[in-house]
Amino acid sequence: MRKKKVPSMVKDQQLIKKRREQMIKGAVNLFKEKGFHRTTTREIAKESGFSIGTLYEYIGSKEDVLYLVCDAIYEEVRDRLKQYLDNDSSGIDRLKQAIASYFKVVDEMKDEVLVMYQEAKSLPKEALPYVLQKELEMTEMIESIVRDCAEDGLLDLEEEAEVKLVAHNILVQGHMWTFRRWILKKQYTLEQYTELQIEHILKGIIK
Predict the structure, then answer these.
(1) Which residues does residue 155 pair with via DSSP β-bridges, in sequence order?
(2) How far apart are CA 201 and CA 169, in angstroms?
(3) 146 and 95 in contact (C-beta within 8 Å)?
(4) How many Å separate Cα 153 from the centre of its chain?
C-alpha cells in the first residue's frame, strides 16, 4: 500500500524533512493536550516554531499533519523494535525479549502512542488504510516470533488463529501500559509490569 503524498511548495527534501519533524513534535504535544479537532493549524505552527504561512508551505491541510504524525510514530516504533530485537537469542528467550522490547518502546514513546490511537480515527479515508497496514506490520513482527516458537514445539499453539491472537494480545498489553499508566505506574515499575505480563501471556501455552 502506497504512502500518502503530502503536498509541499518547497522542493528541498532535507528542509521538508526538518520542518515536518518540527511539525510532528509540536503537533503531538498539542494533540495530547487538546485533541486533534480542538487544535488549530495556527497553534501547530506556533508550537513548531514558525508562522502559519510557513506551515502551509509544507502541508495542504491539518489532516496532513495528523497523517505525518501517525506515519512517523509507526516508523519510529518499528525501527526501535527492530533494533532491540537484533540479537542472538532464540526460542522462548527471543519471545520474552520481543515482549519486553515492545513494552520498552511503548514506554519510551508513550505520548506519541497515546496520540496515535486516540486520533487515528480522524485520518482521511485515503490515508487510514495505509496507517492501519503499519499496525498490521508491527503485529506481524511479534507474530513471526510466536509462530517460530509454536513450530519448534515450545508453545502449545496448533492453529494459526491461536498464533495471531497471542500476537494481538501482546500488543494490547503493551498499549495498556500507555492507556492506563495513570494508575499502573503507581503500582508497578515497567520491569515488574513486563515480568508479570510475560508470565500471564505464556501461562497455559508454554510447553
Answers:
(1) 206
(2) 8
(3) yes
(4) 30
